[in-house]
Amino acid sequence: MTLRKHIAGFAVTALAAAIPAVAMADVSIYGRAHVSVDFLDDGADYSETNLSSNSSRLGFKGDHEINSNLSAFFQIEQQIDFGTDNGSSFNTRDTFVGLKGGFGSVRMGRFDSPFKAARGPANLFGDQVGDMRNLTRVGNARFDERYDNTIEYTTPDMSGFFAKLGYSVQEGTVADQDTDESVFSGSLNYAGDALEASVAYETAEEDTGRGERDGVRAAGAFKITDGIKLVGFYQTVDYTNPAVTAAVQDALTSDTYGVGAEFKLASATALKGMWMTRDADADDFDTDMIAVGIEHKLDKAVRVYANYAITENDANVALTPWGQARTANPAGAAGEDASGFSVGLRYDF
């Protein structure tokens, strides 16, 4: 028998042994393939059709019961960009390891902050044209972040109420020990049959980069009936950075708020719409965004949709309704109204 046959035999044996080991570890594979065809117009010189991959992902997760009161859990999630081959289409998303039990849960790694997750109840157009992050996640004052090196505690569920507290030391590689690169984030949440709501606070100190920022946000969703849901959102951000001018700090200090609704036209079809505005402290830096769409679920895993969204910008701002969570994100034009029409397919597995 040749050396090659010996190696091949060993590989087959090792693979066979690994399969039951993986099964015993209770590991599951999951993901999302989310692609859309978009017509985007910046109101000035850009007007093109695009193919966009929208926060598509592939992940592995698992639980291991240590005893009746304690379990370990993990998740490894990567972003997958369909339609591109640019050498950087595989990026880390929520990836962590932790312990959970009657005390709640503790996890460590890189994942959405409690502040970011708190927008969930009002997020009617997540990862689509019209995503609210196009107004809430602006410049160096943005808060919808997935921070590195984070430790988070989540309380047990208490009649629908639960809280999250997170602390990130960021990279932890700065030689000057007086330099602060930390982030604290916390939220109080409620999830019931008709009402879902979150209130969150976050403060970030980044002396060597984006400056200091503090934010408060609240989001809620209320089901009037099984077919009608109303949502609301509010966020206030204060930005300080001695390295930039007062005018820049005022442009990034803002209040952002909005309301929306979702109406079920049939058991698997919903019509939705949302209006939002970003009111900056600086003059001529405000933006309004309107988004409307219809979504149809082909089954539990697959849905299709069509959306239209527009941002109406003041003279000094160039926000678009398509800039977040998408590979098709051309820049906007200052003072122009940017609009996008999108037809998408999402498959969760």
From TrEMBL:
Keywords recorded for this protein, A-Z: Cell outer membrane, Ion transport, Membrane, Porin, Signal, Transmembrane, Transmembrane beta strand, Transport
Localization per record: Cell outer membrane
Q: Which CDD domains does the UniProt record give?
A: gram_neg_porins
Q: How does it assemble?
A: Homotrimer.
Q: How does it sit in the membrane?
A: Multi-pass membrane protein
Q: Name one GO biological process term.
A: monoatomic ion transmembrane transport
- Stated name of the protein: Porin
Q: Which residues form the signal peptide?
A: 1-25
Residue span(s) of domain Porin: 11-315
What GO molecular functions are on record for this protein?
porin activity
Q: Does the keyword Ion transport apply?
A: yes
Alphabetical list of InterPro entries matching this protein: Gram-neg_bact_OMP (IPR050298), Gram_neg_porin_domain (IPR033900), Porin_dom_sf (IPR023614), Porin_Gram-ve (IPR001702), Porin_Neis (IPR002299)
Record-level GO cellular component terms: cell outer membrane; pore complex
Q: Which PANTHER family match?
A: MAJOR OUTER MEMBRANE PROTEIN P.IA (PTHR34501:SF9), PROTEIN YDDL-RELATED (PTHR34501)
